[in-house]
Amino acid sequence: MKAAVLGEAGVEIRDVPVPVPKPNEVLIKVRASSLNRADLLVASGRQHGPVGGVGARLGLECAGEVVEVGAEVKGIKAGDRVMGSAPGGYAEYAVTDGGRVHKVPANNMTFEQAACYPVALQTMHNAVVTAGRLKAGDSVLIQGASSGVGLMGMQIAKLMGASVVIGTSTNPQRRARLAEHGADLALDSRDPAWPEAARAATGGKGVDLIVDQVSGGVANQNMQAAAVLGRIVNVGRLGGMKGEFDFDLHALKRIDYVGVTFRTRSPEEVREINRLMRADLWPAVEAGRLSLPIDRSFPLDQVAEALAHMRANAHFGKIVLTM
């Protein structure tokens, strides 16, 4: 089969063996995959959890048809149209744990659309609802809201009863579109006054829950924008892995600062994350109430161009590979 693999000179398409599913796994004939920021790390030669270095297979999620299921997998059978988070998803076939796989809703959802959902749903339900402890009536701010995961985070917050949803983007065209996906207010995180605008939008209280995909230089501004007893969930570090941190402000506001990643989670933990997500969100997915725009699609053999498009940071929503 053909798969995107990191070679000495960059990402290339190679012929590799079709993976064999373990008893707890599902083998998928991939029809579409979507890009995530972590794929850029792997493409640059850096490590992302257990994946990295020359020979690494790229991709985190895909959609397609089930070819084979392991003996321990329940509720999924050969021929089912499915989507799921799947390592090595930039390929003609992929295997993944059966607990990460979901049947594609029978609502005319295409494989390209379905491939956009798995990582965004599981990441943002965990960040907003589980780690972020969202309560109906809370205010929510999503840093880096124009990414696919960010757009899903705003929609989940709104669906789960947030009173005010705020999204940030440094691009004015993308900020103008955040309202289409649940934002009541769109802010430019490069504007030094954005924390004051966020507090004003919450009646001066401050934001109850901030889901941060940027980190780096916005850590202190997040705390300025946060309410006393607010929660900040560190999901991504697009703005840098390190930055200044005002420990006194953190203590003064008694903020819960929570770090999350899938890199150190066990299969059992990921299955539970997906179980909780499905319980809260799947009816909305099936009804088409949660959606993600596709910015652009590329065939698998143009994976380098697709990654360059993401690296340029000019997209709104998801970038998709088709097989």
Automatic annotation (TrEMBL):
Enoyl reductase (ER) domain: residues covered: 7-321
Keywords: NADP
Top-level taxon in the UniProt lineage: Bacteria
Alphabetized Gene3D superfamilies for the sequence: Medium-chain alcohol dehydrogenases, catalytic domain, NAD(P)-binding Rossmann-like Domain
Pfam family, one: ADH_zinc_N
InterPro entries (UniProt xref): ADH-like_C (IPR013149), ADH-like_N (IPR013154), ER (IPR020843), GroES-like_sf (IPR011032), NAD(P)-bd_dom_sf (IPR036291), Zinc-ADH_QOR/CCCR (IPR051603)
A GO molecular-function annotation: oxidoreductase activity
Protein name: Zinc-binding dehydrogenase
Source organism of this protein record: Vineibacter terrae
